[in-house]
TrEMBL record:
Residues 513-517, 707-710, 719-720 are annotated as: Binds crRNA. The record marks 535 as: Binds DNA protospacer adjacent motif (PAM). The active site is at 759 (for pre-crrna processing), 830 (for pre-crrna processing), 877 (for dnase activity of ruvc domain), 962 (for dnase activity of ruvc domain). This is Type V CRISPR-associated protein Cpf1. The record marks 20 as: Binds crRNA alone and in crRNA-target DNA heteroduplex. InterPro entries: Cas12a, Cas12a_PI, Cas12a_REC1, Cas12a_REC2, RuvC_1. The record marks 749 as: Binds crRNA.
């Protein structure tokens, strides 16, 4: 081990990354007065209140567009899709061909959407400003008063559409040609086409088995409903295009329902199995609202709304006899064709536990099965088995029974998988979907009894929904239509319980305060979009400094400051504010050609020659072009250099370019411009001018604030403060590492606690922890702070404040003399920060501005490991005895250091989290206010990760930790103590740019020279076996490795019978 000075020094400045600095804003007294006077917050609050109304209008538009477009489709040949389905169903080996056909059909539908001239503007601000006004005016479904109301809402947002970026992205997915369930293309080609295909086969069976008279009777009874179509046409492949709109779907489902009614009577009369003739209903079109379906509200504002929504849901369930129909399915569990009822793979564990009382029975059966039938041996075979199990998306109940029986994995042969169908009878028990009584005198947030009443009802329905989900396969397989036709209808009807349950629970368990923030625009849609001097009066925001404090200035959009004052002075006088002059040349590869070659003003000003203009149009400067000419490329670069030297703003950057002859193509020149095209300067504005601008209401002034700027602050600055200060530090500006970005956002959080809980002056405050002596893992005595259980704390609090006549419990008596307590010197308000209005600023920055965006960190680490001699491995594990445990070993396998992180900084987090977990479980069960554990977890993990990060540099170490996506067992640890996955995410983020606050900012590991030892994956579950210096091993191995031989027990013998074990040994 070395001293760590030179470890990982080649992992500094290798890739750029983005961060957002979050700070509070404190308005000056004058600014706050003008904010109120000018109605700044009211205007944006109004937008917040009407945001959902605008979304509803846009959804109405999207819904109409989908219907209009789909109605016009008449040139897609659906027959080819269903023919591929026939082959797949018959042979089972046509999946790739079917997938390709489905993709082509989705693309064909998407093309219909995209070819409409309106489509390109449907997911941007133009939808609000250009399309919706006309849509509302000509929409006959809106009344005159509704048109007026909706028009006003659209006007309110006409210039403020940027906050809908995520919404537009989600809605664009509704039209996507990709294989995603939220797309209408997917709904048509994948979901409903499979149901239509299945029904076509059922109708053929009906025609084959019924007489012509019976068929004619069905048609005759439905003559008025058929709309001049025959039943044969309705169930023919060629007519599928008639049933892709919501109107067509409703018509089709109505016909299916009437055919089902006839066939039910027919089967009763003729004693036939009605399962053979059951037709399924198509799913509703994406975004469409079926007339009879229950819709979950956006949010609840009152108890009355909660009861109206829940009772509406229960009424829908009751009117459609959902409970009775589910019970009927459960009671008939032996009457279905078990070859054609499927268990979806993601539910194997839960079904296995309910049926066989073991989580792994079904998965074990699959592993043994594929191990027996697949060729190969060793790791290659193991990988094949793992892949086969992963790709096994569902198994029929018959198949599961056979697998479990063949491999003797259940000691009782009478236990069968179909008993899980009967499980719904136990879930529903004596439940009836009856209306819940609303009492306006009892508030849900304050009544545990009323909250429990709601929860108990929704719990039962939620459990029923989860039961339905077990059987809902999306694969094209031959299904028992009698089972699935009924199940899918029920599933669609109770699906809203997910959103409803979450909304009700969140409403009932809400905190006495609100963390909701609204974005403030100060009357300008581009507020703080950028900081460039040329954009100050467009974006209305500037940054100021004085006395080492930082300020945000916002211009009054209707009464802007005098430009001469904002221009400032070049010399500084006492008391002046420094105003940032932000210079940026953004996207040089586009901006430079536009300014000097393409724009009319640029051509007139810089007068490019015909030679330059013609060569540029012919792409002679691009190395990828067949007409690439290095001489012309150099001539163009020289032209650009000359233009930059006389540009009124860009000449101030002081560019230092390479000799033109050294550039191999234009990209090298653009890269040099990009790296030098950022500069911060300062000008000075007098205190008097700033105060005058405030008094005139022309400038809103805020201090950028966090606790580090408090006069009482004595500790080290937090990282966000350090980043903020060093954006403008001499060390950073000399060689840019930190760059201030545009698109800053200002938020406002309204005070929400009107009647705060106050610990009054003179009352006794009781500590929640106490000190105790305890031996560490090596037998040394240490002082540890332990948490007092909540019930004991309440006892002691009442005791010290003379609020209880009861005698103390034994445990409280033991603690009363060791628990610290003192008299409150002043009134202390609980959750004080929510008792007043508060402003916030979010400022994006770039770290390692000059580096590339990607760094191939995994390859770099592997190369580093191959070359390094003095390397260590930090093994990280977690278990029931340790929240997180670390072992450091050298390359010879010697243990260098071991450490349990149950206790950090003298605080016993294991006990604290265990106690908090128990309290939260009770709160969840009874829908009580849930205690804060997130902050405790993050505080604990932050301390642990800091210690591990120091070890990484100190020991020149890589990290080995459990891969929770591989073989992780459910129920293995208590939920709230299982902090490992959160730890993994936070560790990756920390090591992505590792900084130590106690190191000089210009030294390795300092703020401007952070180590980059990981990358940030798009999804944690897709990270694979390596994330930079972190390597993952299967979770099962970390506790099953023999320390002497290294043997790993990967076999699951626990539940195998003696015969099965003998068979296994024979194969070795």
């Amino acid at each position: 081990m070395n001293n760590g000075t030179n470890n990982f020094q080649n992992f500094i400045g290798i890739s750029s990354l983005q961060k957002t600095l979050r700070n509070a804003l404190i308005p000056t007294e004058t600014t706050q007065q003008f904010i109120v006077k000018n109605g700044i917050i009211k205007e944006d609050e109004l937008r917040g209140e009407n945001r959902q109304i605008l979304k509803d209008i846009m959804d109405d538009y999207y819904r109409g567009f989908i219907s209009e477009t789909l109605s016009s489709i008449d040139d897609i040949d659906w027959t080819s899709l269903f023919e591929k389905m026939e082959i797949q169903l018959k042979n089972g080996d046509n999946k790739d061909t079917l997938i390709k056909e489905q993709a082509e059909k989705r693309k064909a539908i998407y093309k219909k959407f995209a070819n409409d001239d309106r489509f390109k503007n449907m997911f941007s601000a133009k939808l609000i400003s250009d399309i919706l006004p006309e849509f509302v005016i000509h929409n006959n479904n809106y009344s005159a008063s509704e048109k007026e109301e909706k028009t006003q809402v659209i006007k309110l947002f006409s210039r403020f559409a940027t906050s809908f970026k995520d919404y537009f992205k989600n809605r664009a997915n509704c039209f996507s040609a990709d294989d995603i369930s939220s797309s209408s293309c997917h709904r048509i080609v994948n979901d409903n086409a499979e149901i239509f295909f299945s029904n076509a086969l059922v109708y053929r069976r009906i025609v084959k088995n019924l007489s012509n008279d019976d068929i004619n009777k069905i048609s005759g009874d439905m003559k008025d409903s058929l709309k001049e179509m025959s039943l044969e046409e309705i169930y023919s492949y060629e007519k599928y295009g008639e049933f892709i709109t919501q109107e067509g779907i409703s018509f089709y489902n109505d016909i299916c329902g009437k055919v089902n009614s006839f066939m039910n009577l027919y089967c009763q009369k003729n004693k036939e199995n009605k399962n053979l003739y059951k037709l399924r209903k198509l799913h509703k079109q994406i975004l469409c609202i079926a007339d009879t379906s229950y819709e979950v509200p956006y949010k609840f504002e009152s108890d009355e709304e909660v009861y109206q929504s829940v009772n509406g849901f229960l009424d829908n369930i009751s009117s459609k006899h959902i409970v009775e129909r589910l019970r009927k399915i459960g009671d008939n569990y032996n009457g279905y064709n078990l070859d054609k009822i499927y268990i979806v793979s993601k539910f194997y564990e839960s079904v296995s536990q309910k049926t066989y009382r073991d989580w792994e029975t079904i998965n074990t059966a699959l592993e043994i099965h594929y191990n027996n039938i697949l060729p190969g041996n060793g790791k290659s075979k193991a990988d094949k088995v793992k892949k086969a199990v992963k790709n096994d998306l569902q198994k029929s109940i018959t198949e599961i029974n056979e697998l479990v029986s063949n491999y003797k994995l259940c000691p009782d042969d009478n236990i069968k998988a179909e008993t899980y169908i009967h499980e719904i009878s136990h879930i529903l028990n004596n439940f009836e979907a009856q209306e819940l009584k609303y009492n306006p005198e009892i508030h849900l947030v304050e009544s545990e009894l009323k909250a429990s009443e709601l929860k108990n009802v929704l719990d039962i329905i939620m459990n029923a929904f989860h039961w339905c989900s077990v059987f809902m396969t999306e694969e094209l397989v031959d299904k028992d239509n009698n089972f699935y036709a009924e199940l899918e209808e029920i599933y669609d009807e109770i699906y809203p319980v997910i959103s409803l349950y979450n909304l009700v629970r969140n409403y009932v368990t809400q905190k006495p305060y609100s963390t909701k923030k609204i974005k403030l625009n100060f009357g300008i849609p581009t507020l703080a979009d950028g900081w460039s001097k040329s954009k100050e009066y467009s974006n209305n925001a500037i940054i100021l400094m004085r006395d080492n404090l930082y300020y945000l200035g916002i211009f009054n959009a209707k009464n802007k400051p005098d430009k001469k004052i904002i221009e400032g002075n070049t010399s500084e006088n006492k008391g002046d504010y420094k105003k940032m002059i932000y210079n940026l040349l953004p996207g040089p590869n586009k901006m430079i050609p536009w300014v000097f070659l393409s724009s009319k003003k640029g051509v007139e000003t810089y007068k490019p020659s015909a030679y330059i203009l013609e060569g540029y149009k012919q792409n002679k400067h691009l190395k990828s072009s067949k007409d690439f000419d290095i001489t012309f490329c150099h001539d163009l670069i020289d032209y650009f250099k000359n233009c930059i030297a006389i540009h009124p703003e860009w000449k101030n950057f002081g560019f230092e370019f390479s000799d033109t002859s050294t550039y191999e193509d234009i990209s090298g020149f653009y890269r040099e411009v990009e790296l030098q095209g950022y500069k911060i300067d300062w000008t000075y504005i007098s205190e008097k001018d700033i105060e005058l601008l405030q008094e005139k209401g022309q400038l809103y002034l805020f201090q950028i604030y966090n606790k580090d700027f408090s006069k009482k602050s004595t500790g080290n600055d937090n990282l966000h403060t350090m980043y903020l200060k060093n954006l403008f530090s001499e060390e950073n500006l000399k060689d840019i590492v930190l760059k201030l970005n545009g698109e800053a956002e200002i938020f406002f959080r309204k005070s929400s606690i009107k009647n705060p809980i106050i610990h009054k002056k003179g009352s006794i405050l009781v500590n929640r922890t106490y000190e105790a002596e305890e031996k560490d893992q090596f037998g040394n005595i240490q002082i540890v702070r332990k948490t007092i259980p909540e019930n004991i704390y309440q006892e002691l609090y009442k005791y010290f404040n003379d609020k209880s006549d009861k005698e103390l419990s034994d445990e409280a008596t033991k603690l009363k003399n060791v628990v610290g307590h003192h008299e409150a010197a002043t009134n202390i308000v609980k959750d004080y920060r929510y008792t007043y209005d508060k402003y916030f600023l979010h400022m994006p920055i770039t770290i390692n501005f000059k580096a590339n965006k990607t760094s191939f960190i995994n390859d770099r680490i592997l190369q580093y490991i191959a070359k390094e001699k003095d390397l260590h491995v930090i093994g990280i594990d977690r278990g029931e005895r340790n929240l997180i445990y670390v072992s450091v070993i050298d390359t010879c396998g010697n243990i260098v250091e071991q450490k349990s992180f149950n206790i950090v900084n003298g605080y016993d987090y294991q006990i604290k989290l265990k106690q908090q977990e128990g309290a939260r479980q009770i709160a969840r069960k009874e829908w009580k206010e849930i205690g804060r554990i997130k902050e405790i977890k993050e505080g604990y993990l932050s301390l642990v990760i800091h210690e591990i990060s120091k070890m990484v540099i100190k020991y020149n170490a890589i990290i080995a930790m459990e891969d929770l996506s591989y073989g992780f067992k459910k129920g293995r640890f208590k939920v709230e103590r299982q902090v490992y996955q959160k730890f993994e995410t936070m560790l990756i983020n920390k090591l992505n740019y590792l900084v130590f606050k106690d190191i000089s900012i210009t030294e390795n590991g300092g703020l401007l020279k952070g180590y980059q030892l990981t990358y940030i994956p798009e999804k944690l579950k897709n990270v694979g076996h390596q994330c930079g210096c972190i390597f993952y091993v299967p979770a099962a191995y970390t506790s099953k490795i023999d320390p002497t031989t290294g043997f790993v027990n990967i076999f699951k013998f626990k539940d195998l019978t003696v015969d099965a074990k003998r068979e296994f040994i024979k194969k070795i």
